[in-house]
Specification:
This protein is 47% helix and 14% strand. The strands form 3 sheets. Strands 3-4-6-5 form a 4-stranded antiparallel β-sheet. The protein has a two-stranded antiparallel ribbon with strand order 1-2. The protein has a two-stranded antiparallel sheet with strand order 7-8. It contains 9 helices and 8 strands. Helix 5 (128-146) crosses helix 7 (214-231) and helix 7 packs antiparallel against helix 9. The termini are far apart.
Length: 276
């Protein structure tokens, strides 16, 4: 790892072949990432980890402010007494991220396909719950289109119902007028966190040489979706009195469907059915 770290008015470069992961944690419906980098650097600089963490956070804020002040609204930084650094995603950053996920096709072309899959074990594994979740997502999206709750367009001329994206002229209102997210139930935030965690596994290179258990990854987002589906209504009173909430929930369904399709077809090598 190469880290540029300013200390005592000098710019030092620390080079070490070690990956210090940033792990996701859930705290009060928020998506939070934590890093132990200051604890690692404490032994190098012979300084308390909390001092190093405080300087690193100050440096991060300066980098963000260099680009645009608006970006400071996307992250909140926190340092605790142990020296652990927490990066909190604000409601604005989550809304922007969800807008991107539903407005543009996820680009999985750069990903090495079917990595770390034990196909022999899959022969005796029941993947039906994951396939069911994907088919349920497709069904909900078709119902949303039928009832004119949402307006989706197929990507790249696809007609299979697997490659939808939100029509950009009518974006989802992810936030309320006060800036808070539309969502009301813990299950919604758990699904959002699981979507983020799954995309981290897909896009981020792991420091571990151990193959990723993609069935476990797919199971986790499938279970989170089923919990969301059980607790969060879209039609009925919600559709009539809170159409923005209904649309936002369908937006979560769309993001989940896209990820499940990729995991089933490209990581697990099975069909992603649009109906059962």
């Amino acid at each position: 790892m190469k880290l540029f770290y300013g200390y005592e008015n000098t710019l030092e470069v620390w080079e070490k072949k070690e990956v210090i992961p940033m792990n996701q944690t859930i705290n009060n419906r928020a998506i939070v990432y934590k890093s132990a980098i200051a604890l690692k650097l404490a032994s190098v600089y012979q300084q308390p980890a909390i001092y190093i963490a405080t300087d690193l956070v100050k440096y991060c804020r300066e980098i963000v402010n260099t680009d645009t002040k608006k970006d400071t609204e996307n992250f909140e930084f926190e340092v605790i007494s142990s020296g652990m650094i927490y990066f909190n995603l604000t409601d604005l950053s989550i809304a922007n991220w969800l807008h991107y996920l539903t407005s543009f096709p996820l680009n999985f072309e750069q990903q090495e396909l079917r990595v770390g899959v034990d196909y022999k074990s899959l022969e005796t594994t029941n993947l039906f719950p994951i396939q069911y979740s994907h088919a349920r997502c497709c069904s909900l999206l078709r119902m949303g289109i039928r009832d004119r709750l949402i307006n989706l367009t197929p990507t790249d001329g696809d007609t299979s119902g697997q490659f939808w994206q939100w029509q950009s002229s009518k974006p989802i209102s992810w936030q309320q007028p006060n800036g808070q997210l539309q969502f009301l139930h813990d299950a919604e935030y758990q699904l959002i966190a699981q979507i983020a965690s799954t995309l981290d596994r897909i896009y981020c290179v792991s420091s571990s040489k151990k193959p990723i258990n993609w069935q476990k990854v797919a199971d986790a987002i499938s279970v989170a979706f089923q919990n969301f589906y059980s607790h969060c209504r879209i039609w009925g009173e919600v559709k009539v009195k809170k159409p923005e909430l209904a649309q936002a929930r369908l937006g979560l369904v769309l993001a989940t469907q896209s990820i499940l399709r990729f995991l089933l077809e490209e990581r697990l090598g099975v069909e992603a059915p649009v109906e059962l």
